[in-house]
Structures are given as C-alpha cells and as structure tokens.
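To whoever is on call:

I kicked off a structure prediction for a single chain this morning and the downstream step that reads the tokens threw a length-mismatch warning. I double-checked the sequence; it's 190 residues and nothing unusual in it as far as I can see. Pasting both halves so you can look.
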Amino acid sequence: MVLKQLALLGLVLSGVMTVAGHFGADPGLSPWAHTISDFAASDRGGLVESAMGLAAVSTAALLPYVRRAVAGLLAIWATGLLVAAAVPTDPVGQVLSTAGYLHRYASVAAFAALLGAGVLLAREARSRATGWMTVLGGLSAAAMVVSTFLLDRVAIGLTERVLAAAGIAVLIQVALRHVASRQVVAPATA
C-alpha cells in the first residue's frame, strides 16, 4: 500500500521539481523554444534532471498494480527516462554527439511507450480523463514531429511540455485510482 502512495507523491513532486527547475535556468533558454532536456543539460544534476529520475522510479513503483501489457510499456517509459536523465543531450547550439543521440532516442522511445500505455489505461479504466489526457499527449506528439521535421523546431518546447504534462497526468490518475482502491496487486494478465 505504501508503494502506491510513494509513487503518487513521487509523480506529483517530479512535476513540481520540473517547473521549479525552469526558474533560475540559463536565461538563454525558453520553455517555448527549448526542450526539457535542454534545461536539464544546462544544469547537470539539478532539479529538472532529478525530476526525470524521480518520475522514472515513481513509475516503476506502479508496475505491480497494472496489467502486464501496460507494465511493459511503462517499464520502457521508465527505462528510457532514466537513460535520458543519466545521459544528457548536448548543449543548445552544438551538434549532437553519440550521447546526445542516445538521449534523444531514449526519450522518443519513452514518450512513445507512455502514449501506448495511456491508450491501454484509458480503455481499461474507461476513464474519460485518462482518455482525454492521452489524446492531448498524442496531439502534442504529432505537433512535435511536425515541428521537428517541417517547422525548424518552432514551439518544440511548448509541445513537449504539453506531452510530458499529459503523460504525467495519466500516471497520476493511475496512482490515484490505485491508492483509492483496496486492491493490493492488479491481475498480471495481458
């Protein structure tokens, strides 16, 4: 029971830490034009990077409470997020190194898995709120792809933050649902 509550606390705290980490950041960075990773890279070991790790660990704490298919996708999300936190992207304006590419594709895999988990969770729970957050996340992901490949990364920071907020909101909803239930462990069926 404590694990579910810690997961909930960790997810909420990771959101607060991410927002707080934007204050006092490099003044050359903009939340509208730069990714969360850009903020993390500018302050190695700071609040944003720590929040990424906390969100990953908090998600892992939810794995025993969700179905196997969802757990697999959330495990990919958590692993990708941990890799992205441990292996920073390159500073703004520099050509991506091997580490930068590793960070980028770990992040892409993480967000894709989180969206997939959101679809399954919305269907399972028959939750409109989870469904709408997943749709919002999917639209944001599509906007990020358009921004990246067609619009020279215009508003990439904004679209990524909407995607991240929607994903964390889905995870918080899952944690809340399980904290409120008396069920110790969800069925481990597909």
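Update from on-call: the warning came from a stale cache, not from the record. Cleared it. Sanity check on the structure: The CA atoms of residues 56 and 178 lie 18 Å apart.
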